[in-house]
Design a protein that fits this description.
Layout lengths: L7 E2 L5 E3 L6 E6 L5 H8 L10 E3 L5 E3 L5 E3 L13 H4 E6 L13 H18 L6 E3 H4 L13 H6 L19 H11 L6 H12 L10 H15 L5
Parallel strand pairs: 1-5, 3-7, 3-8, 4-7
Antiparallel strand pairs: 2-6, 4-5
The structure holds zinc ion.
Zinc ion binds next to loops.
Length: 235
């Protein structure tokens, strides 16, 4: 291990071989305190969960599973046609109380440790910005992490994920809910549970109101995201 961005290695037994090349990063919160409990769980063979990295609120980066192996963090998930998200992704757990233990903003030191690590990962594996996602994006019916207070805008500043569209085009292309869901699926989401998928989209892209309702603003944001991807501004 010669990665200056990794401070400590605690080898988890919870991994197997990848079936797909790496093309995504999934961000999580641990929803467990203290961080030692979360690490213990991710190293417990009976728990059958893990991640490649865990970043403490103090900014310590701990590697649990080598990147070339398949860690077990996403569970039943879907993104842009892939159902085996674990095989396609690198999983990063952020030490955090989560919604269950008192939801709050993410520590600066933690995000400052995440940025260079994510930058290294994205460059090393040529990961599209549109594939740096939250657990809630790939499992909208089950998961809400890392949640509406996660600072995606800070990652976007470094071009490590897609930016929330600011200038929205006029006009509303999705004049009915069916068209909106098709567009949502095309962007990447599993729309099996439509309401949950809309909530997950809002949590990531319009966290000021997460109600699962398809309103004009969420339609415009999704349209803009797809436009920018299709125009090759993002991929
Ligand atoms: Zn998660």
């Amino acid at each position: 291990m010669n990665d200056p961005l990794v401070h400590r290695e605690i080898a988890s037994p919870n991994w197997n071989e990848r079936q797909l090349p790496i093309s995504m990063v999934v961000l999580h919160y641990t929803e467990m305190k203290p961080v030692e409990s979360a690490i213990e769980r991710m190293c417990d063979p009976h728990a059958e969960v893990s991640a490649h990295y865990c970043i403490t609120e103090e900014g310590e980066v701990i590697r649990l599973v080598p990147e070339e192996k398949r860690a077990w963090h996403a569970g039943l998930s879907y993104w842009r046609g892939h159902r085996d998200v674990n095989s396609a992704s690198i999983g990063i757990e952020l030490d955090h109380p989560g919604h269950a233990l008192g939801y709050r903003g993410f520590a600066d030191a933690q995000i400052e440790a995440l940025v260079p690590l994510l930058n290294r990962i994205v460059l090393a594996h040529d990961i599209p910005r549109a594939n740096v996602v939250g657990h809630s994006d790939v499992a909208p019916a089950r998961k809400i992490d890392p949640g509406e207070l996660f600072p995606w805008d800070r990652l976007a500043e470094y071009r490590l994920c897609l930016q929330r569209p600011e200038k929205l085009e006029l006009g509303d292309p999705f004049d009915n809910d069916g068209a909106f869901y098709l567009a949502l699926e095309r962007f990447g989401y599993d729309i099996t549970d439509g309401h949950k998928a809309v909530e997950a989209f809002q949590r990531r892209w319009r966290p000021e109101r997460i109600d699962g309702q398809i309103d004009g603003q969420v339609r415009a944001i999704l349209f803009q995201l797809l436009l920018e991807r299709d125009r090759g501004i993002a991929r």
